Amino acid sequence: MAAAGVAVLLTGVGKRYDIVSAFAQHATVIAADPNPLAPAQYAAHHRVAVPRIDDPSYVPALQALCDRHNVGAVVPLTDLDLEVLAHARNAGQLPAFVPDPEIARATFDKYEAHLLLEQLGLPSPPTALPGEPVAGYPVMVKPRRGSGARSIHRADDERAAEFFVAYVDEPTMVQHHMDGPEFSIDCLSDLAGRCLNAIPRTMIESRGGESIKGTVISDPELIELGRRVVEALGVRGPCTVQVFRDRRIGLGITDVNTRFGGAFPAPVYAALPGRTYPELIVAMARGEQPDPHVGQFRAGITFTRYFWQLELDESLAPTGRDIVAPPGPPPPR
Fold first, then answer.
1. What is the CATH architecture of 126-176?
2. Mind listing the pLDDT tens digit for each residue in 295-309?
């Protein structure tokens, strides 16, 4: 049941049906996406085709939706419009849960993010631009921008690194290969930049750079690192910090995404009653100020994600039927 009087606008919803449906349990949700077949929009109360992010009418279209539906929070579900929304927030146009524009810009560029983390005294693996000396091999050749572990290649020597730099058709960087387990820390900050919670999880299995299996863990070092990162950056709203624990250099942050992570269900399952991230964002949209409760969650929760689909009729409305039985055990005989 949607909460009366408060609405949340989610942008770039794509296939994140899990996020949209979670918010829809606590508030009226408007899903904005330029693609009429974006499946996640069908979990919202209102679905709206908006202009592309690079269209000058994008922000005015979002403003009109905010005015029409009494929106108290605009939450992006991709990296693509973070900086646009950050500028709109600073201009007083949108109640966007995003960091300042310079932080949005820096975290979208992995090399700039590395420099920023070093400047703030936060652990980042040794990183160089192509042609600069590296401390040793192996290294990872990565695009400076993008997500989903796209075009990331391990290079075991200088010749391989040069090959992959030339092979990847976009600006790259060269980063120390982290030899150890990978973790993600799902964080949420309030509008003053205070960390409300930081929930670490393991990376049991990923596909296309997106976690599909993992376990929530109680690791004080990771919890404190997540808190330090989001408060140093002045994050507002959700943030996912990706970390390796290298056997030689210890913790190293390889990515900071100021949005929900692929494994969004993990912190939802682990949160204490009334403290899921959608519930806290809806509370802030109402003007409430939740108290920080960093480290308070249920560890040991494991998630495993799967794919589902919707059938749409000729007018692109859901039919409510499917070609397979709904998930869950078969009914008793």
1. 2-Layer Sandwich (3.30)
2. 999 999 999 988 888
